Amino acid sequence: MRDLIPDLISRDGERPVTRTLDEEEFGLELARKLREEVDEFCETGAVEEPADALEDIRARKCLERGGFEQRIFLVETHACTGLDG
């Protein structure tokens, strides 16, 4: 679920029940959500559904490769020679 959804639910006078997923569960749930969004798009043709699917893909990539908070910039890479420590 998107990070702000519990706050929106609370503002509507309800109490959200949440838990934090581990990395494996998160990946599985992202895949499930992606399938759900694609199915909705196929059924309705609503353009919002592909946008949600792309957001889910972006979130999965962030989980797998990290975000941009540390501002790391890759200058280049070097092959390992076996002599490197």
Describe the structure.
- It is extended and about 60 Å long.
- It is an all-alpha fold and 85 residues long.
- It is built from 3 helices and no strands.
- The longest helix is centred in the middle third of the chain and has 22 residues, at 23-44.
The shape, in one word, is: extended
Can you give the mean pLDDT? 80
How many strands? 0
The total count of helices amounts to 3
Instruction: Please give the share of residues in helix.
Output: 55-70%
Strand percentage lies at under 5%
Distance between the termini: 43 Å
**Rg result:** 19 Å
Alpha-beta content class: mainly alpha
- Low-confidence runs: none
The biggest beta sheet is recorded as: none
Q: What is the ordering of alpha helices and beta strands?
A: HHH
Question: What's this model, at a glance?
Answer:
With 85 residues, the protein is mainly alpha-helical. The protein has 3 helices and no strands. It has helices at residues 5-11, 23-44, 48-65.
Keywords:
85 residues; mainly alpha; extended
Write the layout of secondary structure elements.
Elements (H helix, E strand, L loop, with lengths): L4 H7 L11 H22 L3 H18 L20
Helix pairs in contact: 2-3
